[in-house]
Amino acid sequence: MPKATRLAKQFTASxxxxxxxxxxxxxxxxxxxxxxxxxxxxFDTPPHIVEAAVKALRDGETRYAAPSKGIAPLLExxxxxxxxxxxxxxxPMSDIIVTPGGKLxxxxxxxxxxxxxxxxxxxxxxxxxxxxVVTMIGGMPVTIETTSDDSYRLRLExxxxxxxxxxxxxIINSPSNPTGHMLSSEEIxxxxxxxxxxxxxxxxxxxxxxxxxxxxxxxxxxxxxxxxDRVVILNGMSKAYAMTGWRLGWLAGPAEVIGAAGKFNxxxxxxxxxxxxxxxxxxxxxxxxxxxxxxxxYQERRDFxxxxxxxxxxxxxxxxxGAFYAFPKVDRTTxxxxxxxxxxxEKAVVVGVPGSAFGITRDAxxxxxxxxxxxxxxxxxxxxxxMAHLLA
Length: 392
Description:
Layout: H1 6-10, H2 15-28, E1 34-35, H3 47-58, H4 72-86, E2 96-99, H5 102-113, E3 119-124, H6 129-136, E4 140-145, H7 156-160, E5 167-173, H8 185-198, E6 201-205, E7 231-236, E8 249-252, H9 255-267, H10 274-285, H11 289-310, E9 315-316, E10 325-326, E11 329-330, H12 337-348, E12 350-351, E13 353-354, E14 364-369, H13 374-387
Parallel strand pairs: 1-12, 3-4, 3-5, 5-6, 6-7
Antiparallel strand pairs: 2-8, 7-8, 9-11, 10-14, 11-14, 13-14
Helix pairs in contact: 3-10, 4-10, 5-6, 5-9, 11-13
């Protein structure tokens, strides 16, 4: 009987999805589990967005999207949002493509950029799917590990040291999943310098751009004139608008890359669902109060979770500048992050994702989402605090 490819045998399910599924299984078995492994807002999609989708369905918007790269009102809304938020001037019909979710957007972007064997620099901690998608396409992920002791900063010399003649791109995520780190001006300059020196594409994952704290807005790398023509923006509706299940993302950038991504999209997904695109138009063009209300709630939870983890002996949590994840570290331990995550799961019945899933090998970090009810967050910190002595 024919067998699956060698490449397919290398892959496992996404670690975050696997841990989230484990939390649901424990809950179904009757355990008082607190699942903080997922990357999903706990808010419902705002009503005016839902109503736009319902209206679109009633109006018969159930056929293939035309054009397949995205309906014109949504392409125009994304272009308007990009100019409003970042000062970008995008041609809606040549510089943007709408996709069924951010993961496919990443896949299409890399497919348009990479030949087999090309290398992609991926600073760690990274979103778990970055290296897997690079590998799926035949590229080579090159991890550059940063540390909490250095506030996860990107250093130009460290980046330069990993560049080879096969290096084609670098993936940047700010605010970051899993650390919440936002690029400083020095780091932005380092990335720009590297891209120009080594002639690299930059994939700028801006999915958490609206979820930034303490009044510090996220800067799009595409807004820097010197590198604008090599930046491909990855964004979507999932996080800022609580639309994870709607599966709607987009790419924006140089017309050559976007055009190639559009060809691949037409031969795979065809298009994102038409009625969800109408919902996205309502989200981007409509009132943004809902986004700000959710951002404020996340900031309050951030304040609690950082203080809570730092109050636990032998645990520390750096400040979190954006997104909705904490990435605390067990300061003194002989255990790996996988072992720590399993002990917390077994003894505290709290589900997090081990730091190893995000490319961190030196320290025992665990990622916890604070996109959860505050009462659950308090209970999680109390449970972990009560058994933290077992983590040494």
